[in-house]
Every structure is written in C-alpha cells, then in structure tokens.
Specification:
The complex is a heterodimer of chains A (121) and B (108). Chain A is mostly beta strands. Chain A has no helices and 11 strands. With 108 residues, chain B is mainly beta. Helices cover 0% and strands 49% of the residues of chain B. In chain B, strands 2, 4, 5, 6, 9, 10 and 11 form a 7-stranded mixed sheet that branches. A 4-stranded antiparallel sheet of chain B has the order 1-3-8-7, with no helix packed on it. The radius of gyration of chain B is 13 Å and the shape is globular. The N and C termini of chain B lie far apart (35 Å). The chains are: A mainly beta (121), B mainly beta (108).
Chain lengths: 121, 108
C-alpha cells in the first residue's frame, strides 16, 4: 500500500518561500507514475500546483509557474515543493498525491493526509 | 483554462435515497473526467475515472456518466458514509488540471 506523507513548516512569513517535502513509502518514486502537489483553500477549492516524473520532467499550473519549483530526490524516495514570494493567498492545506495512468489519462489515486501552511508575519 | 461548474452546491437527502450530482465543463473534456469524494479532515478519494469507470474498491452504488461537457455522478442508494463533498476533475485540456468547486451532500 503506497503512502505519502507531507512535511514542512506550518507557518511562513509573507514574501518568504514555502518549502514542503512528500515522503513516499510502500512504493518507488521511480515507478511509472507522476507525483503532484495540490492545495485546498476555502476560497479557491482544490487547485493543482504541478507534477513531476522521476526523470525530473515537470508540468506546472500556469497561474503559479513563475513561483513554483517541484523537484525529486530518488535516493530518499521523496519529492518537494518550493513556492516563492508567498502571500496570505497561499495559505492552504497542501496535499501531495500520486498520479497513475488509468487507460489513457493520469488520475490522482493516492494522496497524503495534507499539511496546513499559514502565511503570516 | 477549462472551468468545471458543479451543481447543486449543496444536496440534502436521506439515507436510502438516490443522489444525482452534476458537473459541467466550459468546453469539451471528452470522457477524461474524474470524481472524488472528500470527508472532513481527509484527503480526496478517487471514485470514478474516465467519466464512468469505478476505481478499485469503490462500491457499485456509485456510477458516473456523460461525455463532452456534461457529466453526472449517481449514488443509487445513499449509505450514511456517503455524506461528504464531491469534486469533479478534468485532465483533457491541460495544464492546468482543474477541479470543480464541489457539491456538499448532507443528511436531510
């Protein structure tokens, strides 16, 4: 059973950089899956941030692309999110998730429990 | 960006009743649409993919239909554990992947 666990600071100062890590257990990050970050805030619902393949290929949400970096560490079986120049609008529950190919298209089949990040001074 | 609009925002029903949830896309997503269930304090759970295929372990009372721009999630006979928030999600025209704003299914 694949499990994902987010970790990182729960409080980030405005204009700072949000950094989160997702540890993958029960499976290899080098499997034929994509790995993604999704956030959820009361005002905007679920918002896809981006995704990465173990080769390092990435896709980002155009609305966040200028501030987002997703990276993978195969030696630690984990992937990470960095979001720069944060504001209060970035306050949200952040989830990491696995994307699996279901016939033709990738869908989210495993999720972490989420970690709440608050942007405040 | 494809916008997914879910209706109704809130649906109040009793256990045993049939639930019908709608998701409308701003442009065609073919059949590349999924439905997720989210309970308080939990992450979303995949129910339906490719509009009508049940994910592993999902009970047969959940079914999905539709293609193009109009999709429906049906729960044939509500169980107490089905009361939750439901989201649709598309991956036909991306980036970005987009989600609907959710339908809250509450006990009447």
């Amino acid at each position: 059973q694949v499990q994902l666990q987010e970790s990182g600071p729960g409080l980030v100062k405005p204009s700072g950089t949000l950094s989160l890590t997702c540890a993958v257990s029960g499976g290899s990050i080098s499997s034929d899956n994509w790995w993604s970050w999704v956030r959820q805030s009361p005002g905007k619902g679920l918002e896809w941030i981006g995704e990465i393949y173990h080769s390092g290929n990435t896709h980002y949400n155009p609305s966040l692309k200028s501030r987002v970096t997703i990276s993978v560490d195969k030696s630690k079986n984990q992937f990470s999110l960095k979001l720069s120049s944060v504001t209060a609008a970035d306050t949200a529950m952040y989830y990491c998730a696995r994307l699996t190919l279901m016939e033709i298209v990738l869908y989210f089949d495993y999720w972490g429990q989420g970690t709440l990040v608050t942007v405040s001074s | 960006e494809i916008v997914l609009t879910q209706s109704p925002a809130t649906l109040s029903l009793s256990p045993g009743e049939r639930a019908t949830l709608s998701c409308r896309a701003s442009q065609s997503v073919s059949s590349y649409l999924a439905w997720y269930q989210q309970k308080p304090g939990q992450a979303p759970r995949l129910l339906i993919y490719d509009a009508s295929n049940r994910a592993t372990g999902i009970p047969a009372r959940f079914s999905g239909s539709g293609s193009g721009t109009d999709f429906t999630l049906t729960i044939s006979s509500l169980e107490p554990e089905d009361f939750a928030v439901y989201y649709c999600q598309q991956r036909n025209n991306w980036p970005p992947i987009t989600f609907g704003q959710g339908t809250r299914l509450e006990i009447k």
